[in-house]
Fold this sequence. Notes:
The chain has helices at residues 8-16, 20-27, 38-50, 55-67, 75-90, 97-109; strands at residues 4-6, 34-37, 69-71, 112-114, 128-130.
Amino acid sequence: MSGYLLDTTIASHVIRGDRPAISQRLATLPMAEIAISSVTQGELLYGLGKRNYPAALTRRVREFLLRVDVLPWDHEVAQAYADLRAGCEASGVSLAPLDMMIAAQAVAADAVLVTNDKAFARLPEPLRMESWDSLGLS
């Protein structure tokens, strides 16, 4: 794929439109270069479910999902996950399980992970990251 993989927090900001710097950066890129992990899709849908599917938010999430590529979890991603997690554990680095899965998806897709979560910064190469937030990684 290459391009950009939005983590769940960044995707949520895009959907809410509450971070102008993120929206401005997104607007400069072709949508064909933007994707999310199927893990992020699951987290977004879970967020709707736990809020009992509010109509306006559900509509915004579904519109967002129609506009971005959702990358499937496949054998290449599973291998990237195994290698990344093993490397992290060997060096004493930990990450929340779903975040590790999203990071592996970025590695497998040769995409830049867009995040404002400092926890990802502890992960080794080949993970590449960018923050689109004017505050930087936070």
